[in-house]
Amino acid sequence: MADKMCFVIMGFGTKTDFVTGRSLDLDKSYRTLIRPAVEDAGVRCVRADEIVHSGSIDVTMYRHLLDADLVIADISTCNPNALYELGVRHALRPFTTITIAEDKITYPFDVSHIAIRCYQHLGSGIDFEEAMRFRGELTSVILTLLERPEPDSPVYSSVSGLNPPILELVAEEELVEVELPGSDPTLSILTQRAAAALAASRFDEAKALFSTARSIRDDPFLAQRLALATYKSRTPSEPEALEEAKAVLAGLDPEVSNDPETLGLWGAVHKRLWSTTGERDHLDTAVLAYERGFDIRSDHYNGINLAYLLNLRATISSAAAA
Question: Do residues 193 and 310 share a domain?
Fold first, then answer.
């Protein structure tokens, strides 16, 4: 089946399930569960961030949703993009779409009647035995579906008489799933390089790479990583870097966001702005961000920062307010 191709629908990086407040490393799900299972079935595996493409990334995505022999959709965090792309696939193809999710997902109503195969994610890691179990199950399902496809699209199951669109190749666009000499790096390679630079404290390099990655796909994870690298770079000066990071995060609506990562970064940036400018508004904003983050996750990071800033604010407040 070497000529068969599987397109994987899912978010990338660390995403938050806003219903439970849990953060899941979806890249780890892809590396340890999905890709090995697909390749064990003898099928080529492609995720959107691994494609070198010309033109709009949307064209590439729709093309693969139409002509992929198999699509696997991971809807663990109910990512709106993943759910939308799953709907498009169900409209285009009656067969060979597999839906998977982390086992603590709260199913949206419209997918609650679809067969969803579940795996167990520990947030930052996946147990080895669970990885091997799910990989074996997924490989078996892939082989069965490709050999004996059965309708799995609720669109074609519910509406009789539909004919799927003809699979016509789009000659204008070349799609390549590997990095070729002299070609632009894929989104996946850019984010890997950026993450390595960030881990090595090469913040200016990480900032440039995350900025380039974000120009390819404006994803919240990339915005969060860009903001982190920006404020840690302290260039051209710490106040300017903080203001730049603040502007990046503002696009994620931190005042109303339920994303703990966004809230933690928003709190950190304003905490540093308070320490560099002494302006009370920054302190109050940081308190609100950490308070909201703690309400969502009840975690040590938000809790410790909230307690510290509340004590700090008390020392500069009137006796009654303190």
Answer: yes
